[in-house]
């Protein structure tokens, strides 16, 4: 039985859920590597007996740059790899091909690729996803990839949609969270910010570091972190309407 490692950058938890659905469908024993927790790129070498599942969120049609940067220390040696681009019901554009190219270059063999839907960071878009049905579908995909690997042959012989050169993207958004008077200075938002963008006062946000991932908003235990401005609210309303048509998860193998 291969060693399974699940690696993810996941500010609001969608990529983590989808990556774990795949990893857990392959093995009950999974090593987890959370790239959200630290800016350091872990140096890890994998062999042909490993299986690695790697995922992160789509920002502007690419994998967010912070995630790609934290994957640069991962090296394979013909290591089968399943890639995951979690996206918010618009599109994943060039995110899967970008991840495939970088990880192939690093010695991995891409055996499967998933583009699962997750609640969009902005607005109220597909708010319950990935739900139980999505995760079951994702687990089913993992089993099919494993059957393909077990049957031998060329595991890389499948197409992934996306263009080269990649579109410009992967950057953070422009929205910066606010802090209301309800803040109890627990420090959780500062501790959990993946970009170390929140100052010691738990309020001031470094404009250059923040990527608008909204992890601080979702994690705040008293809902003090917010984005309740007229500009955001009006954008969010229009964006929610624009992306209201449900998209399905997409899998390639
Ligand atoms: C700045 C920014 C840009 C985004 N761009 C896209 C996009 O181009 N397409 C899309 O479908 N979703 C986009 N999203 C939504 C995320 O891809 C989606 O919510 C994803 O599931 C988040 O994953 P996470 O929970 O692992 O952080 C964007 C989110 C942010 C914050
Ligand atoms: S998580 Fe919320 S309550 Fe805690 S310091 Fe941050 S804003 Fe304040
Ligand atoms: S401060 Fe910015 S980067 Fe940090 S958790 Fe909040 S939204 Fe994300």
Topology:
Elements: E1 3-8, H1 14-26, E2 30-34, E3 44-45, E4 50-59, E5 62-63, H2 65-70, E6 74-75, E7 79-86, H3 95-105, E8 108-115, H4 132-150, E9 178-179, H5 188-192, H6 215-219, E10 225-226, H7 230-242, E11 250-252
Parallel strand pairs: 1-2, 1-4, 3-6, 4-7, 7-8
Antiparallel strand pairs: 4-5, 8-11, 9-10
Helix/strand order, N-terminal first: EHEEEEHEEHEHEHHEHE
What fraction of residues sit in β-strands? 15-25%
Tell me which ligands are bound.
flavin mononucleotide, iron/sulfur cluster
CATH class of the largest domain, named Alpha Beta
Number of E strands: 11
Overall spatial form: globular
Number of domains: 2
Average pLDDT, rounded to a whole number, is: 97
Give the distance, in angstroms, between the N- and C-terminal Cα atoms: 21 Å
List the main descriptive attributes of the protein structure presented here.
seven-stranded mixed sheet; single chain; 2 domains; binds flavin mononucleotide; 28% helix; binds iron/sulfur cluster; Alpha-Beta Plaits; two-stranded parallel sheet; globular; 253 residues; Rossmann fold; alpha/beta; 11 strands
Fold and architecture overview:
β1, α1 and β2 form a beta-alpha-beta unit. Strands 1, 2, 4, 5, 7, 8 and 11 form a seven-stranded mixed sheet that branches. A two-stranded parallel ribbon has the order 3-6. The longest helix has 19 residues, at 132-150. The protein has two domains: 3-166 and 247-252, Flavodoxin domain (Rossmann fold), CATH 3.40.50; 178-226, Alpha-Beta Plaits, CATH 3.30.70.20. It has seven helices and eleven strands. It has helices spanning 14-26, 65-70, 95-105, 132-150, 188-192, 215-219, 230-242; strands at 3-8, 30-34, 44-45, 50-59, 62-63, 74-75, 79-86, 108-115, 178-179, 225-226, 250-252.
